[in-house]
Amino acid sequence: MSINTLLNKKLRVINTGLSSFKDNLDQVGAEAVQVKWKPPVDVNSKSASAIAANKQKIDEANKKALEIILNGKPALIGLEIAINVIPGMKKNLILHSGPPITWDRMCGPTRGAIIGALIYEGLANTPEESEKLAASGKIEYAPCHEHSSVGPMAGIISASMPVFIVKNETNGNLAFCTQNEGLGKVLRYGAFSADVIERLKWMEKVMYPILKSAVEKLGKIDLKNLIAQALHMGDEVHNRNRAGNSLLYRALAPAIVETANKKEDAISVLNFINGNDHFFLNLSMPAAKCCLDAARNIPFSSIAIVMARNGTDFGVQLAGTGNKWFVDKALLPDALFFPGYTKDDANPDIGDSSITETLGLGGFAIASAPAIVQFVGGTANDAVQYTLDMYEITAGENNVYQIPYLNFRGTPTGIDVRKVIEKNITPFIDTGVAHKNPGVGQVGAGVLSAPMEPFRKAFEGLGKEII
Predict the structure, then answer these.
(1) Are strands 31-34 and 12-15 parallel, antiparallel or unpaired?
(2) How is the chain split among helix, strand and coil, in percent rounded to 5?
(3) Same domain, 205 and 279
(4) 410 contacts: CB under 8 Å, gap ≥ 6
(5) pLDDT (tens digit, 9 = 90+) per residue, 46-98?
């Protein structure tokens, strides 16, 4: 095409730079298309060279890791008191969400939840006594993830708390999680008032033995099957669990009615589950955890098996780097806040619930649950695009968990840190929001993209591992 012919035609622009360039063209009526492209993240050259030189080994390791993850079969097999089943649990140990952290760096919600847990355990009588004990050095702290466990938001698990036992029937490993308390002023959001402790005691003394007997009667509940059905019914099993909760209720209710000693207790437990749309979250999380844990310690693998936040830090672990944490600052979610609260009240991102995204659920499957993006004024098209973006940074697609709107395409699964760096795209997460001060509780819900720095550190850490 000659220059004269070109200038005589209507110009159309393909913009690969800042989107503001396209905005300017739109304002003057020019036809323009924005290319979604970002330059790769700047990383250590030695690590980059080592990873490039070992591409085939990494690809083979990732294929193995993905196969293990996809073949995982999580099932609820029972309930028990934490100290009796969680590896390494003891009376003076408090487990928390996210990577390792000390009391002096803990955020308000985590501190508030620990204050409440120590009162619940009878180790302190008042919040003041509890806070003093928490800071004394007599209480030990560790990530849930380092004890085969997961916890939403603050993620606190103490010795006397009942936990679900979820087994990966393919590999035999277990994962544990507490029972979900509901929304609002609850321990996991940092609240510790008398009614919070009273609810926890009811869950221990009434709900736990009833659920334990019901699951024993059933033998097990196939969580993989429930999650697959829930995705077809409008859930993404992180922030939206209405379908999962309903399916769980149908599975449990007959056994609860049959095994409960007191009719009034059975009614109270069934009403609690029915009125708590997030109850299933505390099963989808350990279901994801036990599938991902089975892929630990695969040399050369660049697939993430943990994303977790403690309200201060955001941490990542890879299948190919053992139990090493790659950590940086947690970010504030983009949220819809409850009346009377604003972003100034919000604590940075917190919780182990991003284990769902790590498996390819939650924000990765948000195209199955577009109602969630209404939290931040988004549209159904936005939800679809978020999921499509996640295919760009994953090693494969799930063979069971499918998205109806995408013609039953499998959810994007197996976050490949190489692709995160190459595409400059970080995982998309939907989440709840806790008040930054202890004792207040939940103030909203929203979404965010994970910070890049932990993934850059993970990429470089893998490079150093294989140099």
Answers:
(1) parallel
(2) 45, 20, 35
(3) yes
(4) 360, 396, 397, 398, 399, 400, 401, 402, 403
(5) 999 999 999 999 999 999 999 999 999 999 999 999 999 999 999 999 999 99
pLDDT tens, position by position, 112-151: 999 999 999 999 999 999 999 999 999 999 999 999 999 9
Across the strands, what pairs with 318? Answer: 304
Asked if residue 324 and residue 185 are part of one domain, the reply reads: no
Asked whether the beta carbons of 375 and 382 are under 8 A apart, the reply is no
Residue at 274: amino acid letter: N
- Asked whether 269 and 313 are in contact (CB, 8 A), the reply is no
Cα(95)–Cα(111) distance, integer angstroms: 12
- Domain identity same for 262 and 308: no
CA–CA distance, 283 with 276 (Å, rounded to integer): 13
- Flag whether 265 is in a domain: yes
- 201 and 264 belong to one structural domain: yes
Number of separate domains in the chain: 3
| Token duo for residue 193 | 């008032």
Specify the amino acid at residue 282: N
Q: Which residues contact 122 (CB under 8 A, 6 or more apart)?
A: none
The amino acid present at 412, given as its one-letter code, is P
Q: Is residue 236 domain-shared with residue 361, that is, in the same domain?
A: no
The owner of tokens 């090493």 is 324
Query: Same domain, yes or no, for 311 and 239?
Result: no
Nearest to 368 by CA among 407, 414, 394: 407
Asked if 306 and 390 sit in the same domain, the reply is yes
DSSP-derived letter for residue 393 is T
Taking Cα atoms as reference points, which of 184, 212, 186, 208 lies closest to residue 117? 186
How far apart are alpha carbons 197 and 4 in whole angstroms?
79
Q: Look up the domain containing 403 and give its range.
A: 45-50+295-466
For the question of whether the overall pTM of this predicted structure is more than 0.90, the answer is yes
In a domain, 120, yes or no: yes
CB atoms within 10 A of CB 91: 12
Write down the residue that tokens 């299948």 correspond to.
Answer: 319
Residue 79 one-letter amino acid: L
> CA-to-CA distance for 113 and 82, rounded, in angstroms?
17
First to last CA, the chain: 50
Distance CA 333, CA 430 (A): 8
> How big is the chain by its Cα radius of gyration, in Å?
23
Per-residue buried b or exposed e for 404-432, using 16+ beta carbons within 10 Å of the residue's own CB = eebeebbbbbbbbbbbbbbbbbbbbbbbb
